[in-house]
């Protein structure tokens, strides 16, 4: 029998044999036993001195942990999406006229405008004053009552959207789709009515330039009142004190 | 000392009772722990596990029902040794199920019986060698101790113990020559 066989055979023992070997061949000497027992005593004393601990066994499932994290992330995402969506909608929605700086403009609306008088629509935009002059009123042209207005500004003004017209005149006679006249000091351009009931139109007033508007009215409906429309729904009225057409002049 | 005697002694004189409990069961506990940890643990690991087992038993003596110390101590030793085994094994990045540790070699019943018979005969032959040769062989080839430690245990120098070990092994080999 070789050494390895001897070791292999001895080490392939069952617990019963192991106990038998330990009983017959003690693993420790007396001195070793004393030393080990001292260690046991020290260990016991050390554990007795420790404060009593309450052990709580809680079963932790990693899948549940992951589920919680995913749920929290989904909730956060939904909240962010909701608030983001609301914010986006808010930016897309047209603001009420009161909130427009331009719509806060107050036109100097006095009942004493006369022909040739320069009329200041102050603070129409944040960029400065828009000046309006009634050049002519009460003149007749092609059997129509005619009012000619000049707009000027030191700053460019653009009203591209028909819903944001700068100027609106009551009873303006152009039919829907019919081109009227709008003069710029540089070039003439057309105006076009968008709706039946009103005459909103869009134009660009260039910086330092003027625009002349000639508005035509039926003889039986002279323009007693006109409006500055500073936004799509707010309008500031002003009155043109022009002489009504005198039938005798005809 | 029986468990009931131990129980009485522990109640009257805990210090002596604990000492008696240790002396009664140290070999039993050591055998259980050693069998589980010898392949993976060092002698220090085995001793630490033994110390922890006994200190745990002493701390929980009051909760052992009916003073049935042997079964409690045996199970406690098994559990702690298996914990040690897993910790040590994990350090080597591998864990084996407890069943495999309890039964390291899965043999057929017939083979297991033969092995048991062989081990019995071997142990009888070793014992027949007489002292200190039997102790030297077991300490060397079963417990895996160093010859210097064995020498101290049997009251010989390391060299003398080594010589006796070689001679005893040769005698044993001669006696068991017809085995395989």
Q: In words, what does this structure look like?
A:
The complex is a heterodimer of chains A (250) and B (180). With 250 residues, chain A is an alpha+beta fold. Chain A has four helices and twelve strands, in the order ααααββββββββββββ. Helix content of chain A is 28%, strand content 28%. In chain A, strands 1-2-3-4-10-7-8 form a seven-stranded antiparallel β-sheet, with no helix packed on it. Chain A has a three-stranded antiparallel β-sheet with strand order 6-11-12, with no helix packed on it. Chain A has a two-stranded antiparallel ribbon with strand order 5-9. Chain A is rod-shaped. The longest helix of chain B has 24 residues, at 14-37. The termini of chain B are far apart.
Question: What's the topology here?
Answer:
The complex is a heterodimer of chains A (250) and B (180).
Chain A: H1 3-11, H2 15-24, H3 30-49, H4 62-92, E1 106-107, E2 118-125, E3 128-141, E4 144-153, E5 157-159, E6 167-169, E7 179-184, E8 188-192, E9 203-205, E10 210-217, E11 226-229, E12 235-238
Antiparallel strand pairs in A: 1-2, 2-3, 3-4, 4-10, 5-9, 6-11, 7-8, 7-10, 11-12
Chain B: H1 3-12, H2 14-37, H3 43-59, H4 69-91, H5 98-102, H6 109-128, H7 133-141, H8 147-154, H9 158-175
Number of domains of chain A: 2
Strand portion of chain B:
under 5%
* Structural class assignment of chain A: alpha+beta
The 3D shape of chain B can be described as: globular
Summarize the biggest pleated sheet of chain B.
none
